Amino acid sequence: DAGVIQSPRHEVTEMGQEVTLRCKPISGHDYLFWYRQTMMRGLELLIYFNNNVPIDDSGMPEDRFSAKMPNASFSTLKIQPSEPRDSAVYFCASSFSKKGPGELFFGEGSRLTVL
Amino acid sequence: DQQVKQNSPSLSVQEGRISILNCDYTNSMFDYFLWYKKYPAEGPTFLISISSIKDKNEDGRFTVFLNKSAKHLSLHIVPSQPGDSAVYFCAASKAAGNKLTFGGGTRVLVKP
Description:
The structure holds 2 protein chains of 2 kinds.
Chain A: E1 5-7, E2 10-13, E3 19-24, E4 31-38, E5 42-50, E6 53-56, E7 65-71, E8 74-79, E9 88-95, E10 105-106, E11 110-114
Chain B: E1 4-5, E2 10-14, E3 19-25, E4 32-38, E5 45-51, E6 56-59, E7 62-67, E8 72-77, E9 86-93, E10 101-102, E11 106-111
Parallel strand pairs in B: 2-11
Antiparallel strand pairs in B: 1-3, 3-8, 4-5, 4-9, 6-7, 7-8, 9-10, 9-11
């Protein structure tokens, strides 16, 4: 069974440009999470969805960040406009609620560099 | 406001010896704790978990201990192997939801 799939794996862009990161969760999972990893802040939760509905977006740093989940098999995280401080690795993860709390399956991450 | 803390950023241990990783938390509402392992250029992978109703959970070479009164948990790896070299994240959640709060990670290096 395929794991969580993220694209692109690497993105280099210039300040002010729009960035869209994509995620395909594991089929059948009902939770989807977006995390960001930086040296300073470690792994921080940005937003998570349950059955395609955003539940908690309190971790989204600014209005420049937005996330959508139009269906159970696809989610996007958009940054517009991007800034150098947005440079980080962005992870998408999914889980199945019936399996128990917290056992998330992570994608390989999207490394974003904003110049 | 770091609710989950791993105070040791790195740990070096000889192959065959025990690795002990520590984690502290501040939120008493957490009742499920997990450890994740992360290799470079990969996403974190689940390693072992423990519910707050237990004080120990063992899975092969990995054992997690929970001290609720001290709000402290630890991960023991014995014996340590070179393939265990990775970054280990402690995480906590409230049973009512799947949201995980992670610690900052501890980089483990197992020397042959």
